[in-house]
Amino acid sequence: MRLLPTTLAVVIAASTFSIPAQANDQLAANICNYVQADDKNRLRKKLKESRVKLRNIYNGISCNGGSLLRTAMDSGSDKVGTFVAKRLSVTDLKAAEADGMTIVQWSEANGHDGSAITAAINERIASN
Fold it and tell me: How far apart are the first and last CA of the chain?
């Protein structure tokens, strides 16, 4: 069976990742490192090079058991955390994470309620 180039492009575009699993693991590791280091420029560059959108991969990435936003808050990575918050859908920001808490509930429970990241999340939620 031979796929037409347009059909192949649709199949690739519909998948979250069209790269091998090992490359997915490396991409996730790089993203976690950039979040912890508060390196927004390298994070943006890596996402662009990989041709993925943050909102499409956010739920699939865990950094030491926490989401990207939790990792950013724990690391004091305000630039990256606000970048991530602005790229996610309001639905993602309101959704309960693995422990049943939303990111706002978790931030309040863990002393991050005054952070720039929490402010960006609340602003994003309030605007919709």
Answer: 46
What are φ and ψ of residue 100, in 5° steps? 90, -5
Say which residue the tokens 């575009």 belong to: 13
pLDDT at 23: 64
Q: Name the residue among 85, 128, 79 with its Cα closest to residue 104.
A: 85
Mark 22-34 as b/e (b = at least 16 C-beta within 10 Å). Answer: eebeebbebbbeb
Domain segments of the chain as ranges:
23-127
The SS3 assignment for 60 reads helix
Looking at residue 42, its amino acid is R
Sign of the CA dihedral running 34, 52, 86, 61: negative
Weakly modelled stretches of the chain, pLDDT under 70: 1-23
- Cβ-based neighbour number of residue 67 at 10 Å: 21
Give the pLDDT score at 57: 94
DSSP string across 15-45: SS--S-HHHHHHHHHHHHHHHHTT-HHHHHH
